[in-house]
Design a protein that fits this description.
By secondary structure, the protein is mostly helical. The chain has one domain. Helices cover 39% and strands 0% of the residues. The chain contains two helices and no strands. The radius of gyration is 15 Å and the shape is extended. The two termini are 26 Å apart.
């Protein structure tokens, strides 16, 4: 079967989380908000200098696909 599948953040017992997915969420959402609104909020500013090719990261460290 062809399709897109997402892994849940929690295990089946809901007593343990997958920290890699949490970190991905915490870093990707501020980047998404910056691309969507073209405004740098505090969360984006905290990780901006860690983006590859900083400070010239548009179309290099951050790539936007249509």
């Amino acid at each position: 079967m062809v399709g897109i599948y997402f892994n849940p953040k929690w295990n089946q017992g809901y007593d343990n989380t997958f920290s890699g997915l949490e970190i991905a969420d915490l870093t990707s959402y501020p980047i998404h908000k910056y691309i969507r609104n073209n405004k740098k909020d505090k969360a984006f500013l905290a990780l901006e200098n860690k983006i590859d090719k900083y400070p010239d990261y548009i179309n290099k460290g951050i790539k936007v696909f249509p």
